[in-house]
Amino acid sequence: MHPARTKLLLRLALTLLTLSIVPLVSATDWTYRVRLHDNIWDLSSRYLKPDVPWQKLQDYNKVTDPYHLPPGMTLHVPIAWLRVQPADAQVIAVIGSAHVQLPGQAQAVPVTTGMTLGYGTHLSTDANASLSLQFADGSRVLMQDNSELDLDQMSAYGRTGMVDTRLRLQHGRVSSAVTPMTGVAAHFSVETPGTVSSVRGTHFRVAADTGSSQTEVLTGRVEVAGDHAGVLVHKGLGVAVANGSRPTQAQPLLIAPDLHCPTQPINQLPYSFAWSPVAGATSYRVQMAANDRFEALLLDRVTSSPQSALPDVPDGDYAVRVHGIDANKLEGEDSICTLHISGHPQPPLVMEPLPASKVRDTRPRFRWTENLQAVSYVWQLASDAQFTQLLASETKLTGDDVRAPQALPYGRYYWRIASRDSSGKQGPFSDPMPFDLVPQPPAPEVGKPKSSHHQVSLGWQTGTPGQRYHIQLDRDPNFTHPQVDQTLDQPVLQIQKPGAGAWYVRVQTIDTDGYAGPWGEVQKIHIACVSCRIAAIAGGGAVVLWILL
Predict the structure, then answer these.
(1) Which pLDDT score, from 0 to 100, does residue 444 have?
(2) Domain holding 22: CATH number?
(3) For residues 201 and 38, what is the distance between their CA atoms, to the nearest angstrom?
(4) Rounded-to-integer distance, Cα 119 and Cα 87, Å
(5) At which of 381, 416, 437 does a domain end?
(6) 528 in Cβ contact with 536 (< 8 Å)
């Protein structure tokens, strides 16, 4: 079917559905209740088109005395007689990359807060972008990321307060909070390639993706029309419609999830925000904004697990809302909680000692990265993870390291670090980082070598389980070019006999955490010359033989 014909049929179905709900008299007239001091001439100039004389209003309402209108009297005004002028929408918030193409302009420009938009405007949002529009009657629309929206029609009926707003969502998702409407000409609708959703005051969502549309009603009711038919969708229900198909019976939305709202300020970022799983949910949408009006989204993420990391945002109050998504792509009821973030400046990253590491220096040095938001650091050392037993503390450190002020006995310790910004505000401490101060591994002493005909063996005392051994053998006592340089799991070296003469050997222990202890004392060994012994024996035999002869 031709797209224009499809759109016409959609609007015709919507009109028929609306007429079936609204009384006929209200479908033609706007009513006005007369106030004290009102007169027929002032009312005509205020509300009627310039070419509609006041006498027509008098005759239509059978007013016998135009000089005296009784307060409380109801005047009926045909919609066609009312003044109509274009209405504008205003951008009240925007985050991320969004673009607007104004009527008559070929080039799109970035959307900015405060921008005024008329009908015929085309809006688009990129990934991780969102914006909110406010219309002439106070209704608001949140446009989410990867969406395209056309402002098809925006009209105001003079000073009646009635506004006719018609939006066309090409693809993506919008959430609308529509001000309750008075007057039969007041209208608000969102059209997708497959449906038209029309309301007179409610909170609802509309989505359009490849081949289908979804409408979800959070308050009030929404009339959804498509393919010569319509359905009235009440609060807590939704309808998914394939393009070119009739809307089916509305179905219940998923219940709102139970959020695990933090009761204390959040000081560790990123923070993992969690909620209880919802039966029937295939995924969840998580949104975060600066307040519970959700005018622009700092986070808009769909996740399959019942948790999501919140972004790193400045300190302050925020709102998070979550709802489930079912197999039909209908998104459920919202749960909202507010939270306070107080996590800046963040602590720096630690370099040494790392958590659960071993330290051998009895006056250990502590090192960290430098946070660009920090002008100084607060450092603490304690003997317990709660830091009730402080051993050392510095409150205005600069640079990236500090050394323990005194020698420490062997044992377990904890340290932590916090940043302080230029205003003097101290951020949260890092997690307590435990480390163990342990003795240096013993330096092994090589025993007397054992040799056989072709091999030589060197051994030394065994260390603790898991330790390894690094051994070097060289002609030079400075070990500038070791002939043997091996790391062994066992305290023994077995090698082919090297050349005869003097050799130097040293061994160091490598602890289970990879720390290499000090070298043991350099020892000198002698390797006998086997060929020399054979030659000596052979020479002696020749002498004996010569004597015998």
Answers:
(1) 81
(2) 3.10.350.10
(3) 29
(4) 8
(5) 437
(6) no
**DSSP string covering 104-156:** T-SS-EE--TT-EE-TT-EEEE-TT-EEEEE-TTS-EEEE-SS-EEEEEEEEE
Q: Mean pLDDT, to the nearest integer, of 442-450?
A: 79
In angstroms, the CA 103 to CA 475 distance is 88
Say yes or no: 354 and 431 in one domain: yes
Residue 69 lies in a domain: yes
Distance CA(401)–CA(31), nearest Å, equals: 78
Q: Where are the alpha helices (DSSP H) in 441-492?
A: none
| Cβ 312 vs Cβ 270: under 8 Å | yes
Tokens linked to 122: 């085309």
In this structure, of 230-234, 374-378, 538-542, the range with the lowest mean pLDDT score is 538-542
Per the CB < 8 A criterion, the answer to whether 509 and 469 are in contact is yes
Residue 464 CB partners (closer than 8 Å, separation 6+)? 441, 512
Cα 266 from Cα 285, distance rounded (Å): 21
Sheet-wide strand order for 450-451: 450-451, 455-459, 492-496
Burial class of residue 103 in the structure, from the number of CB atoms within 10 Å of its CB (0-12 exposed, 13-18 middle, 19+ buried): exposed
Range with lowest mean pLDDT among 8-22, 222-236, 352-366: 8-22
Closest CA relative to residue 334, chosen from 294, 295, 305: 294
The pTM (predicted TM-score) of the whole model is 0.71
Q: Is residue 265 part of a domain?
A: no
End-to-end Cα spacing for the chain: 129
Q: In this structure, are 328 and 356 located in the same domain?
A: no
Could you read off the pLDDT of 108-140 as tens digits, one per residue? Answer: 999 999 999 999 999 999 999 999 999 999 999
**Helix, strand or coil, per DSSP, at residue 238:** strand
Q: Considering only CA atoms, which of 524, 520, 513, 504 is closest in space to residue 470?
A: 520
Bigger pLDDT: 184 vs 320: 320
Give the integer Cα–Cα distance in Å for 359 and 356: 10
Same domain, 368 and 428: yes
Q: How far apart are CA 246 and CA 212, in angstroms?
A: 11
- Residue 318, in any domain of the structure: yes
CB within 8 Å of 241: residues ≥ 6 apart: 194, 195, 212, 213, 214, 215, 224, 226, 247, 248
Q: How many domains does the chain have?
A: 4
Indicate whether 487 and 418 sit together in one domain.
Answer: no
- Map tokens 């949104």 to a residue: 287
Domain that holds residue 300: 271-341
pLDDT, residue 454, reads: 79
Split at pLDDT 50, 70, 90, the class of 318 is very high
Do both 528 and 455 map to the same domain? yes
Q: Are residues 503 and 521 in the same domain?
A: yes
